Automatic annotation (TrEMBL):
InterPro entries, per database record: NAD(P)-bd_dom_sf, SDR_fam
Pfam families: adh_short_C2 (PF13561)
UniProt cross-references to CDD domains, sorted A to Z: SDR_c
One Gene Ontology term of the molecular function aspect: oxidoreductase activity
UniProt-recorded name of the protein: NAD(P)-dependent dehydrogenase (Short-subunit alcohol dehydrogenase family)
UniProt xrefs under SUPFAM superfamilies: NAD(P)-binding Rossmann-fold domains
Length: 240
């Protein structure tokens, strides 16, 4: 019988992260839910461990990892999606904040977890949350999408350098995902929702559980020969 893995999920208190936490917990893994706020409350609700972590702060990351213990699977879900603006209007400070969280934050925690994995000498898995926006632009969302293109590049960089240590690194790249926040902003039947659906060949937004399933797959032994890839979960949106 395979022993339970320790799975650390950043940004796990809500939305996609919460679904990822639930999916790993259902497999019997020892899940550590990390978030900048609300980690303890969300972890208690889901029956997992919780740690507070700010992925843009190296000391905060180190403290969280000390609390979590040895990590077998890191899921880099934490990210900033709420700041938008066109190229000509987006304030420089907002662009910097997006990059600090989505790129620098992902880099910092990956670096610290990978160092500990290498020291243990037992391999490991990292799964990043990217976006098809890194490959298909949407007006007004370029700051976020540029950061996710960088996450894809970081995924490949990490994968090629960590392969020698038995550490696989992949990404899941969703299209629009039906989180509670998105459902509020794009009510069913609204012109805005229909505009998004028109871009998706399967005519559906992804459920958070579908994104979580892709993360679980890439972290599993079934994906043992997959590294350095970014898997779209987009209903075919990249095809059009």
């Amino acid at each position: 019988m395979t022993s339970a893995r320790t799975v650390l999920v950043t940004g796990g208190a809500g939305g996609i992260g919460r679904a990822i936490v639930s999916a790993f917990a259902a497999l019997g893994d020892d899940v550590v839910l990390a978030d900048v706020a609300g980690a303890a409350e969300a972890a208690a609700e889901l029956g997992v461990r919780g740690v507070t972590a700010d992925i843009t702060d190296e000391d905060s990351i180190a403290k969280a990892l000390d609390e979590a213990g040895p990590v077998d699977v890191l899921v880099n879900n934490a990210g900033l999606l709420t700041i938008h603006g066109g190229l000509l209007e987006l304030p420089a400070a907002d662009m910097l904040r997006i990059l600090q969280v989505n790129v620098q934050g992902t880099f910092l925690i990956t670096q610290q977890v990978a160092r500990r994995m290498v020291e243990r000498g037992q391999g490991g898995v990292v799964v990043n949350l990217s976006s098809i926006g890194g490959r298909q632009p949407t007006p007004g969302m370029g700051g976020y999408e540029s950061s996710k293109a960088a996450v894809d590049a970081l995924t490949r960089w990490s994968a090629i350098e960590l392969a020698q240590h038995g550490i696989r690194v992949n990404a899941v790249a969703p299209g629009p995902v039906l989180t509670p926040m998105l459902a509020m902003g794009l009510p069913e039947g609204s012109p805005a929702r229909e505009a998004w659906l028109a871009r998706i060949p399967l005519r559906q937004l992804a459920a958070v559980e579908q994104v979580a399933a892709a993360v679980v797959f890439l972290a599993s032994a079934n994906a043992a020969h997959i590294t350095g890839t970014s898997l779209p979960v987009d209903g075919g949106q990249l095809l059009v």
